[in-house]
Amino acid sequence: MDADRKGRREDSPRQRIQGELRELRQLRELRAREGGRDRRPETTTGTGRVRLDQPRTGRPGLITLPTYDPEAFGKLSERIARFLGTGRFIVWMTVVIIAWVVWNTLLPDAVHFDDYPFIFLTLMLSLQASYAAPLILLAQNRQDDRDRVNMEQDRARSDRNIADTEYLTREVAALRQGLGEVATRDFIRSELQQLLKELDGQKESSEAL
């Protein structure tokens, strides 16, 4: 009887632990079934676990919009804006306009492609102006962003310099205070001379006695 009671006492914690492990396995299986519905192949590892350090990718729709690299587009817009602001562009645009007008006025009518009042030339210049303005604004925005970053870096650098200067000032003041309490050579020499005078005076007084 005692042995059976001891066996039951020993088996009861073991059975309790096994039951808790069984419940944990069932709960894990339930979570795996529920998470398998929304799980994406991009956010899972080789072991089937969900990657929490990666965002979920949306499901591809029926219509996929074209994507572009904004950094590359910004660099291209800056190049175009720089070229539009040079004298070379003005010279080439003037040459093209003069050649256009000469071709459509002085040459025979059979080779004309834009008669007076040059509607097609006006359309081309309007398109060039309508595209040039947004490109210049985009380049200016990128330059403003760079200037703002540079200003923030300069401000942080100046704050660090001010903090370093204040720290060095405090250190120099502490060193001056410490040096003010240190005995100098002249002070020690004057003290020694005073001691020698006192010793000489005591010696003379003792000899007089």
Automatic annotation (TrEMBL):
Start-end of Basic and acidic residues biased regions: 29-42
InterPro entries in the cross-refs: DUF1003
Membrane-crossing segments per the record: 89-106, 118-138
Region listing for Disordered, in residue ranges: 29-57
Pfam families linked to this entry: DUF1003 (PF06210)
Recorded superkingdom: Bacteria
This protein's UniProt keywords: Membrane, Transmembrane, Transmembrane helix
Protein's name in the database: DUF1003 domain-containing protein
Organism: Kitasatospora terrestris
